[in-house]
Amino acid sequence: MDERIIKYCQGILSKQEQDRLLKEAYNDPVLKSQIIDYQHVHSLLELAPEKADSLQGHEGYGNFKRLVDSQRRKVWLISFSRYAAIIAIAFVSAWMLASYYFSGNVTEKQELIAFQQELVVPSGQRAELTLPDGTKVWLNAGSKLSYPSFFEKERKVFLSGEGFFSVAKNEKVPFIVSTRTIDVKALGTQFNVFSYPESDYTSVYLQEGKVKAYFPSSETEGVELSPEQYLIQEGKQFKLSTMDPDDLLWREGIYTFKRQKLASIIKKLELYYDVKIIVKDKDILDYEYVGKFRQRDGVMEILRLIQRIHKFKINKDDDLNQIVLSK
User: pTM for this structure?
Assistant: First the structure.
């Protein structure tokens, strides 16, 4: 297999080599299919959460490479471990065309291919990946990130869920995270964005550097954040608040709750594990809890740990995908 494909997916191919590869792929269906197939495998390698899964992912890549080198045909399906198979649905969702002008004696307009990719992290899992510009991204459970296979005039991604971004610095091309309500612009910085479709708010926490949050229709009226500032957007309003840095431990698979009421905890558990939690006795919602949970323990184990302190009954209906809490 063309080694340029591997370097391209890893984001280490030079701009000139990248342009040449994409131009070749535009006219070569075999090369185009190889790039698409390896994008599938590379994404799974990036998203595997456990060491064993990563090893399975590399084994799958080895099988894929041998098939391509020996048979030169498209690989439609590669088997992975039971975790890697469900961890991330990484696929090329559409083909997009980008215009590029070659410099030289003659200005010639050429069309290059850009893949619009969509990475989906199922409930109870998390993911880590590196974008084509070198930006590192951590995605929380139930999140979805859409991004192009290469950035040209802008670096823009679309987030649904929660993600932490360590942005590669490029003062000429700002990095923009677009959510269902607001955009967040950065040059080179580290920040967290929370914007699940089911949530009634979007939040931005700046760990390092500088970002600006704004509504797409009125960027000039946005809010610039300084390190350790936490911004919440509800409706048409922005407000600054505080956030415990421990809340970012989700990147390591740890959920932290400090004197949070069960009502707040339940909302997050529903988002993280894609399950409906029904509370029959409403006074249960006023219980407060302090603790840290491992993501991989699952929603039932987390509720059982809380149950040891605040006594209530737990009943799960797998058919309805719901959990009922009662006294």
Answer: 0.69
